[in-house]
Every structure is written in C-alpha cells, then in structure tokens.
Amino acid sequence: MDLIDDGTNGNTPEFSVSELSGAVKRVIEGEFGFVRVRGEVGRVSRPRSGHVYLDLKDDRSVISGVMWKGVASRLQTQPEEGMEVVATGRLTTFPGQSKYQIVLEDIRPAGAGALMAMLEKRKAALAAEGLFDAGRKKPLPYLPEIIGVVTSPSGAVIRDILHRLRDRFPRKVLIWPVAVQGAACAPEVARAIEGFNRFQPGGTLPRPDLLIVARGGGSVEDLWGFNEEVVARAAAASHIPLISAVGHETDTTLIDFVSDRRAPTPSAAAELAVPVRMELAAQIRDFGARMTRAMGLRVEHRGQRLRDLARALPRPEELVEGPRQRLDVMGDRLPAALTRAVDRQRLRLTETVGSLRPAILRRAVSVERGRMDERSARLGPALARAVKVRRDTLEARAARLSPRAILRDIGTGRERLDRLSQRLDAAQAARIQDTRQRLEALARLAETLSYRATLERGFAVVWSDSGVVTSRAAADEATGLEVEFSDGRMKLGGAAPARRKAKRKPPEQGSLF
C-alpha cells in the first residue's frame, strides 16, 4: 500500500515568500530572456523620473511594460495610446506586486499604417484647436533682410538654399543647426524655432524676418520628427513668418499644415523667400521707361492744349484798344471838369466868407467866457470836497492800523527763534560729543593695532634700508641693520655675507622624484 504525501507531513520543503518569488523570477527570465511582442499600446504613464510605464494588449490579454529613462530618450517614435507597435525586451517579474512585466529595450510602430493612423489622430486634434486655420497664417515679407534657416549644417539642403538665395537675391542667413531625423530631431527643431523668436531686434544676433525649416526627402520614419506635436505647436506659436520645406513635393508632415507657407522643396522655399534681383531691376527699368514716356506724352498733351487755348485768346493789341480809347475821351473831358470844380469851390468860399461877422465872433467868445467862469467858480468847492473825503478816508484807515499785531508777531517769532537756537545748541553739542567719542575709539583702536604696543611687551623690529626685515635671507642680503625697541633704535654691524644656496641635484633618468 503506497503512502500519498498530501502535505500534512513534514517531507514537503518550505520556501519563504522572497525565495519563491526569486525562483519564479529566474524561471521566467530564463525562458523568456528575449521576446518580441506585437500589440496595441494601452495606458501610458510618464512620471517625473523619465521612465515610461505602459500596457500592451490585444483583444484578450494585457501585459504591463516598463521602459527605463535611457531607452525612452533614444526612441525615434514615442509610444502613444492606441498605437499598434512591435516591442522588443525581456520578460521579468515584479515581486513587490506579484506580477510579471516586460522590460522594453525597443518599441516601434507596426508598419507605416500605424504611423499614418497616429498622424491622422494628431492632425485631427490640432485641426480642432484651429492651428490649421488660414486666418492665423501670417503674410511673408516681400524682401526680408535676415533669413533664419533651421536644418542640418552638413547636408545638401543648406547648400541648395544658400545657392538659390545667392542666384536670386543675396540676403543675410542665420543657420540654427539641428538633427533632421532621429529622437533628437523634434526637440531640437522646436527649440530652434523658439530660440529664433526670442532674439531681440537690434541685439548681438539680429532677429530674422523670415524662418525656413528645411529637410531633404526620406521615408515616413525619417521625416517623423516633423510630425511630432511639439514641432507643430512651436511652428504655430512662431511670431516670425515660417516656411516649411520638409521632404519632396509628395511628402506631407504636420509642420506643413501649421506653417505660414509650404514649399515643395528647400530650393522652392528659397524662391518663396526672396524675389529675383535681376527681374526686379528689369521691372524697375521698365517702370522708368514707362514713366518717362508717360511724362513726355503728358507734357506734349499739355503743350498742345496750351497752344489751343492761346489760339482762342484775343491779340494783345485788341485788349488795349478799348481802354486806350476811353483814356483819350476822359483826357479830353478832364480840363472842363477841373474848371467847373474850381468855380464851385470858389462860390462856396465866397458864401462862407459873407456869413462871417465880427459881432458874431465877439458874441460867441463872450458866451464861452461866461461858461468858463461858471465852471471855475464850481471847481474850487468841488476840489475842497474831494480833498475832505480823501482825508476822512485816510484818517479812518490810519485809525484801524495798530502796532499791537506787529508786536505780537515779533514776540512769537522771537520765541520760535529762541527754541530753535536751544535745539541747535543741543544738537551741536551732541554731535561734538559723538564725534569726540568716535575719535577716542579710533585712537584706542589705532593704539591697539600699532606694532609699538607689541614692542612694549618685549618684542623688537629689525629694519634695513629697504624696510622691515622678515626673513633670514633678507637679513643676509642687507648691508646694515637696525633693531627697534620700545624706547628707541640700535644699529647693528654689517651682516654676514649671504650663504650660497646648494644646487639641487637633478633627478636621475627614470626617477619620479
């Protein structure tokens, strides 16, 4: 009869929780050290630590995944919820929660279809915010002074742009070097656009009048950095007009929808940025010739009109014939008119002289003298009354004047002057006392800091011709020495000749010291 061990006896080994969790961990990691999983990204969490926590799921199961900070920073395409991806990593357990998870080493979209689906989702979200509206797009300057270019400094794109600008209309160009693909592309392009917008007009680096974001052609993955939301929002927030020239004519990225103008190629962006200088010069010459012809035709037309009007005017002789005839007639009538006027004036004078009589003059003089005497008699009393009124007024005002108010003001002012004098004396005395105390404190401090107080304690100072001697070498080189005590100085004899310093033996070859 066989005995069945149901665990109630002591033959079954016992494990601690940690030992059992470690054993499970070793088994899972040994069997699934490297796996590739295809699924849909579920919940995505990005804490401040920089790590990324997400779920990979299909229609029946869910696996938790973790991506460490270093791996997440190297990803070209960041995972988003709803994206179909292929993840590579190793399966492990997390004993703290009794769960298994996959530690991701790489995660990529599952084909171009997943990328395009994510792109359409971003495009719909940005369009709903109004970032694609035509009303918010800024017009490009006709002839910018400075053009800022955001691209790779080592590619053919910048050479094409510079060559095209040189052929059409040379302008100053500021280049902001960025990575045009890879994980660093999106943040560097966004920082470049924001950096150009932070330039101040008139600063060390002048603010561009126009921006060009350019990159050559490539696959969807190569151009994906320009589909990132951070790049689209930076382009939409740019206060400087921006031209996007990413890829070839058939390539379309998010920055093309939010930019103020899209160019099919980088060379086309340079053509949109500036006009053709030779065409402008030819157009100016054409305008000048047209203006010269128009002015000539206008002058000729005005001259012909002036000649037509001149033919309608009468001759100068005809204009003066009538006035000349009237002048002759009036000249003939003038002597007779003067004679009649003199006769009329003589008649009036005769009538006036006839009406003048001496008796009439004497009577008029008598009447005027009587009126003058009457007014003279009335003038004396009137002056006396006016003088009396003025004198009464003056006496009334003099009676109202009293020196008491003036004396009261003088007394008040003298009291104020006395108080101010007392305050001034007290303040001056306090200031003098304060200055005396400060002076005494400084004197005590100077006496404390003086080396003479040290001499009083039994020390001495050795002097030479060049000053205080502080070393034996200086004493050997001095020609004469003096020792200063607290009660005076004493000269010493000549110093012993300076001892020659022994030459230091050079180190042997191969020695470190």
TrEMBL record:
Q: Which GO terms describe its biological process?
A: DNA catabolic process
**Which class of enzymes does this protein belong to?**
hydrolase
Q: Name one GO molecular function term.
A: exodeoxyribonuclease VII activity
Q: Where is this region: Disordered?
A: 492-513
Q: What catalytic reaction does the record list?
A: Exonucleolytic cleavage in either 5'- to 3'- or 3'- to 5'-direction to yield nucleoside 5'-phosphates
Where the record annotates domain OB-fold nucleic acid binding, the positions are 15-108
Domain Exonuclease VII large subunit C-terminal: where?
Answer: 131-407
- Leader sequence segment: none
InterPro entries reported for this sequence: Exonuc_VII_L, Exonuc_VII_lsu_C, OB-fold_nuc-bd_dom
Main location (coarse class): cytoplasm
Q: Where does the protein end up?
A: Cytoplasm
What does UniProt give as GO cellular component?
Answer: cytoplasm; exodeoxyribonuclease VII complex
Q: Return the EC number.
A: 3.1.11.6
Q: Pfam families recorded for this chain? A: Exonuc_VII_L, tRNA_anti_2
| Entry's family note | Belongs to the XseA family.
* Function description: Bidirectionally degrades single-stranded DNA into large acid-insoluble oligonucleotides, which are then degraded further into small acid-soluble oligonucleotides.
Outline the subunit composition: Heterooligomer composed of large and small subunits.
Entry protein name: Exodeoxyribonuclease 7 large subunit
Q: Which organism is it from?
A: Sagittula stellata (strain ATCC 700073 / DSM 11524 / E-37)
